[in-house]
Amino acid sequence: MSGSTTAPSGVSNLRLPTPTLDAESQSLLQSISAQGGYAYARMAALAVAGDQSAAEAARDMAWEQLHSGPWHSVLPVWRDAYSMACLHVAKFHFAAGEFVEALGALDMGLIMGGMLLRKDLHDSVVFVSSESRKKSLEGSGDSNGEKLVPEVPVDLNEVLKILPCRSLTCRRVEKRSSLSMEGFLRDYFQRDTPVVITNCMAHWPARTKWNNLDYLNAVAGNRTVPVEVGKNYLCTDWKQELVTFSKFLERIRTKKTSSAEPTYLAQHPLFDQINELRDDICIPDYCFVGGGELQSLNAWFGPAGTVTPLHHDPHHNILAQVVGKKYVRLYPSSLQDELYPYSETMLCNSSQVDLDNIDKTEFPKAMELEFMDCILEEGEMLYIPPKWWHYVRSLTMSFSVSFWWSNETDSSSS
Amino acid sequence: MNGNNGGQVPIGECLVYMSGYLPGAAPEKSPILSPVSVRLPAAVHDGDSWKDVCGGGCGFAMAISENGKLITWGSSDDEGQSYVASGKHGGTPEPFHLPTEAPVVQASAGWAHCAIVTEGGEAFTWGWKECIPAKDFGGKQQKGSTEQVSTPSQGSNTTSGMTLQNENRKGGEESLKRRRVSTAKDETEGLISGEDFFATTPSLVSVGLGVRITSVATGGRHTLALSDIGQVWGWGYGGEGQLGLGSRIKMVSSPHLIPCIESLGSRKERSFILHQGAATTSTQVSRVPGQYIKAISCGGRHSAAITDTGGLITFGWGLYGQCGHGNTNDQLRPMAVSSVQNVRIESVAAGLWHTICISSDGKVFAFGGNQFGQLGTGTDHAETIPRLLDGQNLEGKHAKEVSCGARHSAVLAEDGQLLCWGWNKYGQLGLGDTIDRNIPTQVQLDGCRLRKVACGWWHTLLLADSPT
Questions:
Q1: Superkingdom, according to UniProt (chain B) (predicted)?
Q2: Least Cα separation, residue B171 to chain A (angstroms)
Q3: Nearest CA in chain A to B329
Q4: What local confidence, expressed as pLDDT, does residue A400 receive?
Q5: How far apart are CA B456 and CA A55, in angstroms?
Q6: Distance separating alpha carbons of residues B293 and A232, to the nearest angstrom
Q7: Less CB within 10 Å around the terminal CB: N or C of chain B?
Q8: Which helix (H) or strand (E) segment is A159 a member of?
């Protein structure tokens, strides 16, 4: 690529280096053509030649292809095509000094694009961010170190009014301080038993940094993230949106959205997207028990009152509470019919029982079931064994990280 | 993506207008926000004029001249070579060379492939190879077993327009592998030419001896053909049931007969119907809405057909509700849309994620995905059953013709007024701006009477009487 971007004079001739894109473009375009994407290849060529609107049209075309059929059936080459178009678009914005727009384009590539150009996208984010910080250094500096979540103890009586009935009346999940690996393996992992582990995250940089609004804004403010809006994913009005991290922070702090419709950054692999935040967390040693592989690492960040309805997942799960408090209720994996799972394939790991408002006539068996629950405090980790049903409700603004890992035996198949 | 057999337009001097965008065409050509006249090329103009508009695919447009020539225009590459689907002449409308002298009566384009029907009832198709029947299989069989059969895929994974990162990552690795392979191939064989991926020469589609094709419909990756006795054939990609063969067969490389009528009831029920004639009641049998198919249409990955009695049948991808059966399941067999069983449907058109149909009394119904307002309901909510559009812009209007682009919709009313809605980023609605519309919005075109509308992928073509 000749990189002859047409930056107007006056603006520095900023150019994003994209070595992988430069090396791979030709063969990638050929693969895309092989999938009928002749018009895309034509637009990409025009983009390289300096046509910004062609870059945007190519991105629209690739986006359309990503959504042109069921997600699993989308040809992988279109994910790389999408990343390629995002890089082209970002180059034009960067050359014009439009750093926020450039970051937005790069993030879309990271969120929806393929693997081939991922390094270019990450490196470009670093490149754009550092340019952007150079520009904005003059203006800032009045950091007031505002805390996201004040350290106020939760009033148990108030909390019980919000929680599902019978909360905190049954068995509590056992709490163990600095549990050893052997102890975890023997007493919980092998026995298919949940446990809360305390005093195990003090060394995480996130413990001090993520409660600081200025830090989060500085590190990720201009990054685009997918968020969920609505009571929970089982509701009809639930939807996903893409917003900048600073806008998201603003929303959950000012509670502008009505409490019925919280905004929740949920189940998003944030740390694959924003490397600076990944540096703030440590993968717990417990996740290597069993010899399996780490499957995914997700961020869960939202205001008080977010609910993840009762469901189960196929993997071992450690939920690490970095900021704020959450209520978690667990039902053993042996229960099935009693919790009335949905029949559709897509939702068959979710219970039809709404714990916040149990329909006694429709789900009579769910009423008197034994469960375990706990309030997960800042700095604590909860181990949820595979297939255990869990319901989660945030009691304050909350930022947690979940680690999923598989058993040695089933890691090869996944 | 409108699959109706184009109504005959009375002979006379007609004009073609275009709005929207042909990606890959010369940069100065796009996008066009208000309809502009497309000139018939000098080469064919002598004694010839426009006869019909046929939409087009992603990056190219198609129309038919009075003499039955197929006229195409669209994107071309650096060498001035051309986008194989649009012909060798790039942005200028020119006759597309066909291996037959017979006049073209109807044409349809998918994302990157084309199909036409000649006066003699022959169908030809070309473009993206995946959509073109394999040459070896041309001929007699209707039930060949040569196609690759895939394992049924598990249910869909998307809950909305967004992504699942895990799959995403896996997908990426896969593509990396594939690409390494293709790079190695490049070194030994040199550059792969477009001809490897595109069938540039139209090939004759044979569905059986003596079968005359009367119309063709093209989707994202599949094609349907309708015969003169009202049977429907399909080929191409069928992973979501869009070929109606009862399976998730990934690739059907020869035309297969689609059981549009048979599957609606057992033979017994059918003969019952035959005896009962049109006097159907609300028993189970009344669900059989006819005896033959009179119109077809393809969306991105779904299909629609209309029976002789005005029954609407759909099949294929259902994630957005585009099959109209009240759910988001893929419909693997042709199935009557029960909520409009008491409405006589006249025509139907489909986009990437949505479907629009109009009834014999001129009402408009919409269902499926609505991310860009392409349903015209005034919201962005998807609809899983046909919803009557009753907004004021359609009040008192008798809709006559419908056409859908990838993410936009157009309806022509009996009084010659054109209403468009949906995605408008590239001016495809012809409203003079690039603002999406979620309600039917009237397109102003002074001085001429509109006869036909045909949406292409990201563009819209209009056929009009010349102003007098």
A1: Eukaryota
A2: 5
A3: A344
A4: 97
A5: 21
A6: 44
A7: C
A8: helix A156-162
Q: What pLDDT is attached to residue B264?
A: 46
Q: Where do the structural domains in chain A lie, given as residue ranges?
A: 19-136, 156-411
Q: Is B71 left (phi over 0), alpha (psi -120 to 50) or beta?
A: beta
Please answer whether residues A225 and A245 qualify as being in contact, where contact means their C-beta atoms are separated by less than 8 angstroms. Answer: yes
Taking domain B14-152+194-274+284-465, whether its CATH number is 2.130.10.30 is answered by yes
Which class for B311: exposed (0-12), middle (13-18), buried (19 or more C-beta within 10 A)?
buried
Give the pLDDT confidence score for residue A138 in this predicted structure.
Answer: 53
pLDDT at position B93 is 87
pTM here is: 0.81
B72 sits in which H/E element:
strand B70-74
- Nearest-CA distance A68 → chain B (Å): 7
Instruction: Say whether pLDDT at A97 is over 70.
Output: yes
Q: Which residues of B touch A295 (CB under 8 A)?
A: 166
CB distance A29 to A11 below 8 Å? no
Using 50 as the pLDDT threshold, list the residues of chain B that sit under it.
3-11, 80-81, 137-192, 263-286
CA distance B119 to A210: 71
Task: Check residue B385 and give its pLDDT.
Answer: 97
> Are A114 and B112 inside 8 Å of each other by CB?
no
Task: Report the residue of chain A nearest B161, measured CA to CA.
Answer: A67
Q: Decide if B448 contacts B467 (C-beta within 8 A).
A: yes
Is the Cβ pair A27, B317 closer than 8 Å?
Answer: no
Q: How confident is the model at residue A133 (pLDDT cuts 50, 70, 90)?
A: confident
pLDDT confidence band for A299 (50 / 70 / 90): very high
Identify the pLDDT of residue A136.
72
**Pick from B310, B338, B308, B309: which is nearest to B323 by CA?**
B338
* Pairing state between β B232-237 and B251-258: antiparallel
Distance of CA A39 to the CA centre of its chain: 34
CA B209 vs. chain centroid, Å, equals 26
**What is the rounded CA–CA span in Å between residue A63 and residue A59?**
6
Q: Chain B residues with CB inside 8 Å of A33's CB?
A: 192, 194, 197
CATH topology of domain A156-411: Jelly Rolls (2.60.120)
Question: What was the ipTM of the complex prediction?
Answer: 0.83
pLDDT value at residue B455: 98
pLDDT over 90 at A249, yes or no: yes
Task: Using only the alpha carbons of chain A, give its radius of gyration.
Answer: 23
Task: State both tokens at B28.
Answer: 């100065």
Residue with tokens 């990056």: B59
